Amino acid sequence: MLIIVVIICLVLAIVATVIAVYALTKDDKNGDDEPKKNGNGEMRSLACDGIDCLHGGSCSNINPDSFVCSCVPPFYGRKCEKGNVP
Predict the structure, then answer these.
(1) CB 53, CB 79: distance < 8 Å
(2) What's this model's pTM, rounded to 2 decimal places?
(3) What are phi and psi of 22, to 5 degrees?
(4) For residue 10, how many C-alpha atoms fall within 13 Å in the half-sphere facing its CB?
(5) What is the DSSP string of 11-68?
(6) Hey, is 75 helix, strand or coil?
(7) Is residue 70 part of a domain?
(8) Distances (CA, A) of 57 to 13, 18, 41, 71, 83
(9) 38 falls within a domain
(10) Can you tell me the distance from the alpha carbon of 65 to that of 44, in angstroms, rounded to the nearest whole number?
(11) Alpha carbon distance 16, 41 (integer Å)
């Protein structure tokens, strides 16, 4: 049972990383790293601002309103909050 949970966590981490990389490269068509501005000329905050992925997970912005946490096995969940230490 533990092996199944670890495999599921690894697959979820890989999928989350692929989605995050795709989203980040898709948005950066010009190759610039300049912060984006909203319609009022104000700096937009990113989804990962203020988000802490738990248990050593890392946050990746998908777009200004959406993020994904890449979790370290055996943890999983929106912010790596689920899972048990073996």
Answers:
(1) yes
(2) 0.48
(3) -60, -45
(4) 6
(5) HHHHHHHHHHHHHHHHH-SS---PPPB-TTSPBPPPTTTT---STT-EEEEEETTEEE
(6) coil
(7) yes
(8) 10, 15, 32, 4, 12
(9) no
(10) 10
(11) 31
* The residue type at 86: P
* Residue 30 confidence (pLDDT) above 60: no
52: containing domain = 1-26+47-86
Query: CA angle 81-85-86, nearest 5°?
Result: 150
Nearest Cα neighbor of 45 from 36, 53, 55, 54 is 36
Assign 76 a pLDDT band (cuts: 50, 70, 90).
very high
Query: Which CATH number does the domain housing residue 65 bear?
Result: 2.10.25.10
Q: pLDDT by residue (tens digit) across 55-69? A: 999 999 988 889 999
Q: What is d(CA 51, CA 78) in angstroms, rounded to the nearest whole number?
A: 11
Instruction: Give SS3 for 3.
Output: helix
Query: Does any domain span residue 83?
Result: yes
